Amino acid sequence: MADCLSLNHVSAGYAETVVLEDLSLTLPEGGTLAVLGRNGVGKTTLMATVMGHTTVHSGDISFLGKNLRTMPVHRRAASGIGYVPQEREIFHSLTVEENLTVAEQPGEWNIARVYELFPRLAERRRNMGNHLSGGEQQMLAVGRALMSNPRLILMDEPLEGLAPVIIDLLVAAFHRLREADGLTIVLVEQYARLALEFAERAIVLDRGRIVHDGPSEELRNAPDRLAALFGVVG
Amino acid sequence: MVLPLPLTRSKPTAESPVEFMARSHRLRWYELLPWVVAAGAFLVYPSYLALGAQVMIMVLFALSLDLIMGYAGIVTLGHAAFFGVGAYTAGLLAVHGWGEPISALFVSAAVAGVVGAISGYIVLRTTGLTLLMLTLAVVSMLNEAANKAGSITGGADGLQGITLQPLLGLFRFDLYGRVAYIYCALVLFAVWLLVRLLVHSPFGRSLTGVRENLVRMHAIGAPVHRRMVTAYAIGAALAGIAGALQAQTTQFVALNVMSFDLSGAVLIMLILGGVGRLYGAFLGAPLYMVAQDMLSRLDPVYWFFWIGLLLVMVVMFARGGVLGVGDVIWHRLKK
Predict the structure, then answer these.
(1) Going by DSSP bridges, is the β-strand pair A152-156/A184-188 parallel, antiparallel, or unpaired?
(2) Structural domain of B62
(3) Whole-model pTM?
(4) Which of the residues B1, B2, B18 would you substitute to probe the A interface, choosing the one with the greatest number of A C-beta atoms within 10 Å?
(5) What is the pLDDT of residues B153-175, one digit of tens each?
(6) Chain B residues with CB-CB distance to A103 below 8 A
(7) Do A153 and A77 contact (CB within 8 A), yes or no?
(8) Which range of residues forms the domain containing residue A178?
(9) Domains held by chain A: number
(10) Which of A95, B62, B149, B240 makes a 20 to 30 Å CA pair with A164?
């Protein structure tokens, strides 16, 4: 299967500060990757680097064969990379429907499909962005990313701070995106157990470097190894 | 395969985004109030029609700023540059024989829009204080250029000799300002409809997104710079229409149509009325002009001190301007 995302010896960070060091990874189309690690090891920076929000000091990043190194952020998004940020960043002055509409790009995903995936959003369609629960905001953040019709979706701790029932709902939606829609998914998550059950492959970051890269099953079956790498087993 | 468990049995909407927006932004009864007031003022205050026309021009000018600042979040101290470009364009056209007012409005809007697009393309690559200073630089440069080009613009003496043909070939601009008043009211109405349509369109909603979270808009694939330049150019074109109306109704263009003072005044008008509300301009501009008229009579030398004090009071106690105060009262009454 062709590579969807490829990072080749990437060092990146914020201005002069280097956070990711000599990081390499490839992800095939339709693949799923869990990115694990303690707080502050560079997981969000990795997402931000793929999206173009950081300074890349060296190395190459490519998406579906296109070099992203000099590509502006909005072109990366338009070329098929969806991003669900950790803070959700819903537009508070816009309704649910307007939050989805502003991200709309031609393709299979449209408002009706997002509502089908998250029926709760259809009920809240006229609510302003700041009149939603945390779970609804997270659904909206995922829905908004889907509205740009991505081939690859980056999700930064999408389950953080949510009630178990909402987590179940979102995880079920992620499974559907992977299995029915064939999306390539990178999931940054503190809940290691959930992430390892969802993704086929997992990497563990420590101080900006990959310290483990392999099938999720390996870590799922080796809790001691996971604890050693990660600190806390979610 | 695991499928999501829906929390409800809601059916997905079949409406398109445009249909949804058209339905949810239907005209409300209170939106007709400014037009009822304008019609009433025409009948009740026939000797103040010239002032009324000036108020409507300022409303239009403030409305154009609201599109740029209130919706797209672009803070500018140079909006009078486009008002001035529109005023000089309409004035020069009339001086050189193009006295037909409506076509001159379109030409003025186009010229101001082009100036807005070119300057916006450059200045909108910056943000914050740099952007503020660059917008100030644009208005200062154009003001100085108009001053230096005295043989064309009249320089500090102003552009004189503007003569207009009757409106639609039928209605001559009269001494009492009746035709000018109706002309300004109709143009303002048309521009208001256009701006209303624009801010409720997907483009307008994306401007709100830009204002709220620029980085997020980039990350969802929106061409932010292009949209900001487009909004800036449209705002400039509308300001150009306001400037052209000013030139046509007063038949004179002074150098101060392109000044920092006027840029500041329109900013104050909008803050007084309420920024990003579409109707802030309709309240702020008349409030400012009436306050200016009254205060300058009471205190001819230091009247601007009182305007400043009014602004300080609004900023401290009514952050959303008059409309913000109205919101607070409305919500308290609802409780």
Answers:
(1) parallel
(2) 17-23+30-259
(3) 0.83
(4) B2
(5) 888 888 988 888 888 888 888 87
(6) 220-222
(7) no
(8) 3-230
(9) 1
(10) A95
